[in-house]
Amino acid sequence: MEEEELEKRKKKWYLDVENTPCARDALVHGIAGSLVIGALYFMKSNVVRRSCDFAVGGFALTSLISWELCRVNRAKERAEIKSTVTILNKVTEMRRKELEEKKRTSDAPSNS
Question: What's a single GO BP term from this record (predicted)?
């Protein structure tokens, strides 16, 4: 078990992109953003080199924004799930106590 964890840690982060949350979406959005920004600038100026510069910048900017938005959304979802689990645990505990109390009252001998 420890050897598997050690192997995972040895693996470089840039080789493990498929298991990184939000990476795929950020890369796809970055590629689409670079194509759009580069094409729009090329249509405006007809300068290929400058259009490529804008495309690279568009990729970096779009990927970064997409990555951060995804991380924020995941953090919100995680917080919501944690609060929901806490509420469910409290409700379960209350229900268990109610059932125990009901069982105790029904098992108690009646004084008739």
Answer: mitochondrial respiratory chain complex IV assembly
User: Which DSSP letter does residue 46 get?
Assistant: -
Q: Which pTM value belongs to this model?
A: 0.67
* Pairwise CA distance, residues 87 & 76, whole Å: 17
3-state helix, strand, coil in the chain (%, to 5): 90, 0, 10
Q: Is the pLDDT of residue 91 over 80?
A: yes
The confidence band for 13, taking pLDDT boundaries of 50, 70 and 90, is: low
Question: Taking a C-beta distance cutoff of 8 angstroms, is the pair 24, 18 a contact?
Answer: yes
**d(Cα 100, Cα 106) in Å, to the nearest integer?**
10
Rounded to whole angstroms, the Cα distance separating 33 from 31 reads 5
Tell me: the pLDDT tens digits for 37-60? 999 999 998 899 999 999 999 999
